[in-house]
Amino acid sequence: MKNFIILILSALFIQACTDENKTRNTTPTPNKKDTPSIDNTTKPQPAIEAWNGSDLSDATIKQVQEDKYTYTQCVYKEAQKQGYQKIDSRVATDAVIKQCESDLTKIRATFINAGVPEIIADRYLKKTRIEVTRKILNSLMFAEAARKAGATQ
Prior knowledge:
The chain is mostly helical. The chain has a domain at 57-149. Helices cover 67% and strands 0% of the residues. It is built from 5 helices and no strands. Helix 2 runs parallel beside helix 5, helix 3 crosses helix 5 and helix 4 packs antiparallel against helix 5 (118-149). Residues 34-39 have low confidence and may be disordered.
């Protein structure tokens, strides 16, 4: 009975796939002669030239990597302090991230000096901040759970 149901479902799936392919191929493509010409409208030009990520020099990339490493080390060292073990892990994570915010601004300064648009630099900083926050929160929650379970540190 199961084999029969599987056979029917497979046949229906195959039929649906072949019907989809037929409908895609039968859709008429518009001819250039039939469509009206829209040559009199102008496309909006960007105010500044688009920025390309490959424009960054190797020195800039290395500086950003060093600044990011400094930021993560600051966060990890700050999270190791004993005072954060006595408070809630979410509050501790927020305090740790705020303590090391100055290291994160160095990354932004490096990007801005390299000519990266502010919105892209801010997006990178937000991504970095979220990644580190998640890792620290996970670590602090694990340590808090271990303390509550009776493990010593």
